Amino acid sequence: MELVHRVAASAGFPGSRRGEPDVVLVLGNPSRRNGSLHPVQRWRTEIAARTSSTAVLVFSGYARGRGPSEAAVMAAYAHDALGVAAQRIRREESARSTWENVALSLADLDGAQRIAIASSPLHALRARRYLARQRPDLAARLVPAADYRAGERWGWKAASLLYDVARSLRLRV
Predict the structure, then answer these.
(1) What is the span of the domain harbouring residue 133?
(2) Contacts from 80-88 at CB under 8 Å and sequence distance 24+?
(3) What residues does 56 pair with on adjacent strands?
(4) Which tens digits make up the pLDDT trace of 70-106?
(5) Based on the structure, what is the number of domains in the chain?
(6) What average pLDDT does range 5-18 have in this prediction?
(7) Which of 62, 88, 92, 146 is most enclosed, with most CB atoms within 10 A?
(8) DSSP state of 70
(9) pTM for this structure?
């Protein structure tokens, strides 16, 4: 499981760019039923914050029901708990899928010289592939996020791996 995530964290970078990103796209995940931060949202936000101390963080994800959007919940955690400055935070609050996280954030990614995507390594790899399909010119600007740490959140890594395997099997059927 760790090996799969380690390989995924280093795959899907068509260019040879390195360095700190200008923009980090943080992929959405549903909040808890009461609208509070879900552990997966916490993990993704922490990945974004440790990826860059200067980049703009674009949080993407819609509001389920009447509560705050996924983007708003993660942005609040980044600001309130992790100390990310408000001027570094942007929100995209319409995306309902990973494809839409990418598609609806393109305007925020467009001017960046270096782009990172924050999520679990497998999920971020899928989003990098989506970006390559939607905007190959922007995909050439991708740089790695700080999304892989050995032993970190192994339970969520296992769940992510099972989800991606099941998703791949379902799409092939």
Answers:
(1) 2-172
(2) 82/45, 82/46, 82/49, 84/49, 84/57, 88/54, 88/55, 88/56, 88/57
(3) 23
(4) 999 999 999 999 999 999 999 999 999 999 999 999 9
(5) 1
(6) 72
(7) 92
(8) H
(9) 0.88
Which residues, in sequence order, are CB contacts of 120 under 8 Å at separation 6+? 5, 40, 43, 44, 147, 156, 157, 160
Paired strand residues for 89: 57
* pLDDT for residue 164: 67
CATH number for 91: 3.40.50.620
Tokens of 3: 């090996």
151 compared with 137, residue with greater pLDDT: 137
Q: How many CA atoms lie within 13 A of 17 on its CB side?
A: 22
**Closest of 164, 103, 149, 105 to residue 9, by C-alpha:** 149
Residue identified by tokens 């980044």 is: 78
DSSP character string of 13-24: --S---S--SEE
Per-residue confidence (pLDDT) for residue 65, from 0 to 100 = 82
Identify the band that residue 171 occupies on the pLDDT scale cut at 50, 70 and 90.
low
